[in-house]
């Protein structure tokens, strides 16, 4: 696992990055509208708004809390010795990177710039899935990261096979998300997400029934 000091340094840096949009939001405060678009439909049209305070302050602090929760759960996992330092770093850096990119596009849109949110989100989610998929098959049994269901936690072989399948599904799903950045088909996203959830669960259960 990561050394104790590196834990603290990584958590400090990532926490500051997550809260960076708050500082930028206050610098842009006078130029931002009272209601800011924070959700967009598949055709790139805004269909959900939040108040300026909620967007600038509330959402970053919500992500800040999630980051700390992820950190504490991972650090205190009874099987944390099975979580490699590389995977732990990836997990801790996901929320900060997503936060910065999403807030850049949110502020630019609020200020009147033309931003293809659908393109950005699909690319971002696709890259995240590809990165996660690249590590899933390497993860050993633990209670925090990976496909954590009763059958995988009960059997090392079930865990390895299920996470190996999930790894390929995440990479394939990520590539389809990247492709959908240009197609922007809502139904395709639904199919991808359902497949990434249902197939590993079904496969793991099938292995369990076969005594694996």
From TrEMBL:
The keyword Transmembrane helix applies. The keyword ATP-binding does not apply. The chain crosses the membrane at residues 9-29, 53-74, 86-105, 117-136, 165-183, 189-208. Keywords: Membrane, Transmembrane, Transmembrane helix. Residues 16-63 form the DUF1648 domain. It holds the Pfam family SdpI. InterPro entries: DUF1648, SdpI, SdpI/YhfL. This is SdpI family protein. It comes from Tetragenococcus solitarius.
């Amino acid at each position: 696992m990561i050394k104790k000091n590196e834990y603290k340094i990584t958590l400090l840096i990532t926490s500051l990055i997550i809260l960076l949009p708050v500082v930028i939001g206050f610098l842009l405060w006078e130029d931002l509208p009272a209601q800011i678009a924070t959700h967009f439909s598949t055709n790139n049209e805004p269909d959900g708004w939040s108040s300026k305070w909620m967007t600038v302050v509330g959402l970053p602090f919500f992500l800040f809390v999630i980051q700390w929760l992820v950190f504490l759960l991972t650090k205190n996992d009874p099987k944390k010795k099975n979580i490699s330092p590389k995977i732990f770093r990836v997990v801790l850096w996901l929320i900060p990177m997503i936060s910065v990119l999403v807030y850049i596009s949110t502020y630019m849109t609020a200020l009147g710039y033309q931003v293809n949110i659908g393109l950005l989100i699909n690319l971002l989610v696709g890259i995240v899935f590809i990165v996660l998929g690249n590590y899933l098959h390497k993860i050993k049994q633990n209670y925090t990261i990976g496909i954590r269901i009763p059958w995988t936690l009960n059997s090392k072989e079930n865990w390895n096979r299920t996470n190996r399948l999930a790894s390929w599904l995440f990479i394939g799903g990520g590539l389809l998300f990247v492709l959908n950045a240009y197609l922007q088909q809502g139904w395709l996203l639904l199919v991808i997400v359902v497949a990434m959830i249902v197939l590993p669960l079904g496969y793991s259960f099938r292995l369990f029934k076969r005594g694996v």
